[in-house]
Structures are given as structure tokens and as C-alpha cells.
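PROTOCOL LOG
Step 1. Enter all chains and additional molecules of the complex.
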Amino acid sequence: MIEPNRKGEVWVFAEQEDGSLNEVALELCGKARELADRLGVEVGAVLPGAGVGHLGEHLIAHGADNVYLVDYEQLGHYQTGPYASVLCQLIERRRPQIVVFGATPLGRDLAPRVASQMRAGLTADCTDLEIADVTDPRTKTEHKNLLLQIRPAFGGNIIATIVNYDWWPQMATVREGVMAMQPADASRGGRILEEEVQLDGALAALKLIKRHVEPRTVNLKGARVIVAGGGGVGTKENFKLLYNLAGAIGGAVGASRAAVDSGLIGKEHQVGQTGTTVRPALYIAVGISGAIQHRAGMEESAKVVAINTDPDAPIFSVAHYGIVGDFRQVIPMMIKAIKERAKE
Amino acid sequence: MAYDSIVLVKQVPDTANVTADAMKEDGTVNRGALPAIFNPEDLHALEAALEVKERFGGTVTAITMGPPKAGEVLRACLFRGADRAILLTDRRAAGSDTLATSYILAQAVKTIGRYDFVFAGRQAIDGDTAQVGPQCAEKLGIPQITYLEEVVSLEGDRVRIRRTIGHGWEGVEARLPILATVIETANESRPPAARRVMRMKHARATVEIEGAVRNGMPDADDAARQAEVKKRAEALQQRGLLIEQWGLDAIGAAPARCGLSGSPTKVHRIQAIVLKKEGHTQVSATEEGVRDMVHELVVDRTLG
Ligand SMILES: Cc1cc2nc3c(=O)[nH]c(=O)nc-3n(C[C@H](O)[C@H](O)[C@H](O)COP(=O)(O)OP(=O)(O)OC[C@H]3O[C@@H](n4cnc5c(N)ncnc54)[C@H](O)[C@@H]3O)c2cc1C
Ligand SMILES: Cc1cc2nc3c(=O)[nH]c(=O)nc-3n(C[C@H](O)[C@H](O)[C@H](O)COP(=O)(O)OP(=O)(O)OC[C@H]3O[C@@H](n4cnc5c(N)ncnc54)[C@H](O)[C@@H]3O)c2cc1C
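Step 2. Run joint prediction.
Step 3. Record the structure below.
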């Protein structure tokens, strides 16, 4: 735990793998910029790795003022022990007031280890962050400019706002894809500072034997339109209809967990709490009931079209356009309507 | 070589099936209206420990921290093959966030003393943080291996584990002891064994006996009740059915690091997610209806 340091920076952990940044690091730079401007402080990005200095400029273009580069051979592959030690050493040295991590598998492995070692609070899987004054209901003390950490919990059934009065830094992991990435501004100025750390060999407790990374074949996060199918699609053959619709409007194909679990489509297409969070311009939900865990991944979409045979399906509660009907009839009508417009 | 495992298990409200009846007027969840279940991933953590025991010999000890009712998940562990069960219960632990929870659990593990593995679920379905496992490992000063898929091999004090990393997997080797968090797809969790259920269904911790005696002897005075509790506890003890019960003092936990006083995170506000009934445009499932919708989407520049 560090004492509250109101001049402290807002920090982002810059997650990278094999020399490329995880998009969530850039999303967080934009959000950190907004918070730091509110607080009148600078944004720092902590960038551990081996030979990763070239990533600094991207972090700056997306909002960082200072990039703390920790470039060591031993940091080439992520491992909890050494990375946690790097974070703790830098936090103690520079005393940021806020530290955020992407809520990726890696971020959720690292952040709790750091928080435990620092004896600081950590809020999991936030979907929003704000700055506000908060009065402690017990002591009636007013705390100025705290970080409001907003997160779904209880299986997505509630939204909790969590604060940390004085066991700083205020730390949170943030769900991927929910903070809009700000456009890069190559003219932004910033500094890349090389930081020295002590890396005790014993920290690297694990030996990596083998690593298998699957190429990301679908880019759901980048898609402007997503046509997503659920358990109601029924067969792989029927999914082809969805691919045809996606093809006609230049979209990607997504899915609910029921469709993935029943083998209709690969896991990398899954949208929702345990899949990808998306916010396309248009989300077309086909044969998806709209369970809360699914909605958690798509309800930020600008427009939602739902096609379902059940007029009471919960998906209609988040839809802008609802079509009660069988998708096997509706989709061909949509493809036809879109093609007609293209000809006009 | 035999291996000793400790499994961290949590009783949780069944949040996957929250209905409107489970919501209170003020928008908070009425936990009482939801059935209490064994946290799903913890069943897989238990299974991982039982598999190690079956393959190599050793013991499995289950620990849960919670109110007296949490004794239920300990029985569920005994029914499936755990050798020992410990209920951590203490009013001063109420309101613990993950930092305080992991401190208390780590103190309990240290009190047990000898172990090769600590298995936890990846995430509990109520708090939903997935932080307790890694934080316990830090407090114990041992390596953590999150998202365990499979214990690939175990030789002497070296274990090889396959873990998922989201978009792939990695195989890692570590020296024991370690803490692993287990995911749903790691294994098939076994059902309770009928013979063990028969033998152990009466296993209770002292707080549970106290509750039963209070309900069963409403008019008796304190001394009579205490005598009855003592009698029942001794009878269970003799049959090996008294579940161990520890409070903060038994594990040497500093009260200031437990409960609300040991928790940096404070819940400032809770909102229920109510289905938005804003209404949507009904589109008829006809060529004309669909054509009008596509037209609107083009006009507002959503399409094209
Ligand atoms: C911890 C946890 C995490 C989860 N994470 C996710 C997640 O990330 N993503 C996710 O999607 N789910 C997730 N789930 C699962 C979720 O609870 C639901 O089970 C799942 O979303 C259901 O998928 P579905 O609506 O496609 O299937 P179903 O519930 O089977 O619904 C099928 C729908 O199709 C409709 N239908 C049937 N035939 C037709 C037809 N011919 N034309 C049109 N409509 C038709 C039906 O009316 C029905 O509404 C999670 C669950 C848990 C417990
Ligand atoms: C709405 C809400 C939001 C919350 N948000 C946060 C937050 O952001 N940050 C925070 O620090 N706390 C938070 N908490 C508090 C947190 O839920 C509790 O500290 C809880 O005791 C542990 O966290 P979890 O349920 O997330 O467990 P997880 O960390 O998800 O559990 C992982 C594993 O740890 C083991 N485990 C966890 N609890 C126990 C136990 N009691 N006994 C035995 N084994 C256990 C199990 O193996 C479990 O599978 C929140 C609580 C609520 C009600």
C-alpha cells in the first residue's frame, strides 16, 4: 500500500506479446488520458518486455505522456513472478495514483499478484471508470477525486461501483473492447524513459516447455457489422445463411455460447461475457435468446436487429428492430433487400 | 511419491439463474431467494486434487470460508473423496474483499502446514473477480499457475501443467509447492459416491450443531443447550464426523487485516440490471417489412 498521492500519474499496463501490443493497452491509454485530464496529472504506460522499445510511440500516440520501458532479456515471455516484481518496483518508485490493466487472461493473472504484494485494492473486470468525490458513509469523510470503478458482478446481474479510499494505488482491470480506442495522433509529444529494475532469477519460477498460439482468424472487434447466430440456428448448414448475409453487407460472423458449445461454429466467434465484447455499428442477432451473459458482450452496439421466433425472447429488450419470425425466411429477404439497394 | 493437496471451495448463490423474484425493491439481489450451490469451477479444482491423489497417493483437504451454512460444500467434498474438511467461520471475516479473503485463506493453508498443491477455482460466480487464487499464492510466497487444463506429469517435486492462455495454451514446469486455478474444461467432476454419502451425511461442524440445537430446543436455557452441543459434538468426533472449525485466532490472522477493516475496496453503489423496456421497432417478417428496415439502416448510415 502506498499513501494517497494526489499528484501521482494515471498508469496503464502496456500488455504486449511477441512484440505487438494488445489492443486493450491502446484502449486504456485513451481512457487514462481522460481520467488524467480530469485530475490534472500525466499518463504513464508501463512497458515490460524484451526488445519492445518501438512500441512506445504507439502508446504516446494514443494518449501516454511517459512510457516506462523495462527492457530486459528475461522479460521476453510473460511470467507472473518477474512481471509482478517489475510493476511493484515501479509503483513504489513513482507512486502513481491509479493503475489499470486489461482484463485479459494475462492481466487477470498479473494484477491480483501485484495488488496482493502492494496490499492495495483491486477491482475486477471494470466496464467503466470515472472520477468523482465520494463520502465514506461510515466516517462521513469526503474523499476528493476518487476513481469510481464500475463493474458487473453476480453473473452479470448487477452493476457495482467500487471505490478505494486510501489503500493506494487505486487498481483495476478493465474488460477488453469496452473503452473506445481513440484515434492515434502521431503529433502528440511524450517521453520514453528506460527504467532499471532488480530481477532476481528465483522470480521466474516456471519453465516454459511449449507454447501454442492460435492465429486470430476472426476480427470481431474490428467489424462494423456482425451477424451472430445462436442455438436457434440449429445446424452448420443453416449457419451458411448467416455467412451469406455477412458477405452481402461486409460483416463478420459472431455466435452465442450455445452455438459454440453445440459445435456449430468455433469458439473464437463467441460474443459475450466469456467471449469477445463487441460494439459494432450494427449487430444482427439470429436465433439468440439474449441471455444476460450474451448481452454483456453486445449491448453497447450502436444498433441491434433481433430475429427470433419467440416474441418474449429477452434479446428484444436490447433490440432497436425486432423481427418475430423464422430466420430461414427472414435472412433471404434481408439479403434480397440489401442487394436491391446496392443496384440502385 | 504421495502428494498432499488443499482445495479452496466456496459456496455461492446460483447467479446463473437469477429471476425477477430474486430482486429486491431497492434493486439489490436477495441472496436468500437464490439456491446456494458449490461454485462450479471449484468442483473441477476438487476433481484435479482427487485425480492427483488417485494417481500418486496422498491426501485432499478442503477449506471453505463462509457462514455456517457453507458446511454444505464441505460435505459435498467429503462425499466425493476429500479426506479432511475445514470450515473457516468468524464474524470478523464478514465483508472481506479479495485481499482480506486471500489473507485469511493463506493463513489457514499455513496453519495446515504441509502441502504440495493448492487448487482453487478460477473464478467464483458471485464476486466474479478471479483474484483470490493469485492473491493467495502471493501471500503464501509460491508460484501460481492460472487456468489449469491438465496436470500433464508429476515426478518428484516437478510438475508439468498445461494451461490455457486465451488464444492458445502453454506447457509449463514448476517445482512444488504451487497454487493452481482450475477452469471448467479441465476435467469432468465426479458425482458424490453413494457409500461415502451414507457414511458421512451426518458430518457437521460445531456451529452447525449449535444452530440445530437452537432450533430443536427453543425453550432450553443456555447451559442446557451448551451441554447438548458438547454431547453431540463428542458423539460425532468419535465417529470421525466432526468437521473442523477454525476462527481467526486459530489461524493467527490479524483481525485488522480481515473483514471490512482489512478490505481496501468498498462497494459504493449497487444497481440491478433491469431489462430495459424501452421498446423497439416491430418489423414484420415480410419482404416489405424487411425492405423498410434495410432502408432506414441505410438512411441513418448504419449500413453501406
Ligand atoms: C458463466 C457463464 C458465462 C457465459 N458466457 C456466455 C458468453 O460469453 N456468450 C454467450 O452467448 N453465452 C454465454 N453463456 C451462456 C448463456 O447463459 C446462454 O446459455 C446462451 O447465451 C444461450 O445461447 P442462445 O440464446 O443462442 O441459445 P438458446 O437459449 O438455445 O436460444 C435459442 C433461441 O433461438 C430461437 N429460435 C429457435 N429457432 C429459431 C428460428 N428458426 N428462427 C429464429 N429464432 C429461433 C429461440 O426462440 C431461442 O430464443 C454463459 C453462461 C454462464 C453461466
Ligand atoms: C458486487 C460485488 C462486487 C465485488 N467486487 C470486488 C472487486 O472488484 N474486488 C475485490 O477485491 N472484491 C470484490 N468483491 C468482494 C469479493 O466478492 C469477496 O472478497 C469474495 O470473498 C471473494 O471474491 P470472489 O467471489 O470474486 O472470488 P474469486 O476470486 O472469483 O474466487 C476464485 C477462487 O478462490 C477460491 N475462493 C474464493 N472465495 C473463497 C472462500 N470464501 N472460501 C474458500 N475459497 C474461496 C475458490 O476456489 C474460487 O473459485 C465484490 C463483492 C460483491 C458483492
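Step 4. Note key features.
The mean pLDDT of chain A is 93.
Residues 36 and 233 of chain A are 46 Å apart (CA to CA).
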